[in-house]
Predict the structure.
Amino acid sequence: MPQPLPHPSGPGDAEAGAVFAALAEPTRRHLVAVLGANGSATATGLAAELPISRQAVAKHLAMLGRAGLVSQTRRGRESLFELDPRPLADAAAWLTTVGAEWDTRLADLQRHFKT
Amino acid sequence: MTLPRSEGGPTVGRTDAEHVSRSVELDAAPAEVWDALTEEALLAEWLADEVEIDAEPGGEIVCRYADGEERRGEVELVEEAERLAWSWRREGGGSSRVELVLDAVAERTRLTVIETAPLRATGPMLLAGTWGAPLTRLRDAVRLVFA
């Protein structure tokens, strides 16, 4: 039975922050890359591809799950993990939107001081 | 933090991780720029269409835009003519922190802005989206109790 981890309903700053925090760690970025390439994998399968224990993999997967980047499906005795790229797009959108907002504001401010 | 010098428009600074950063040089001394960051009438020329600000730590900031959007937040840091920071929340989104830093450059001022997305997912139970709002309310409640 699918067990979708909590996922934000839409783009927003809080979600962006969680995504950035999740991706700040090199091992988690590696996990995201491996999941993206393989489609889905078990924690055991992922541990075989990385120089860390299955337990450490599970911990990182939980962090990625909290950011909405990884969803989990039960398969027999093991869980199958899958990458959900939507929060990545949301986080990128946050950066783009906020950057564009400041470009506009600061251009207006510069104009204000030009006599 | 070192940021590239800017002669023309805003310089794109670090846009890695959770930060968006921009830097501009303004034709005014820091004291004059400070007024543009803290006086409502001047803020309305560049930050939003209408701005209310109580420019002291814990003060409220409200930004209203022509399209009806409203952002509310709280002033966090006030160092006259040097640094100003607030947290604000866009409607339907999470909150983020804005920090403005003023540096005197000859007769002018370099203004650097850094907007940071909140890092809520640092604790095991801090689930983005799901727990953000209740935690904010909890924090507000605690602040009221201990104020």
In short: Chain B touches chain A through 42 residues (CB under 8 Å).
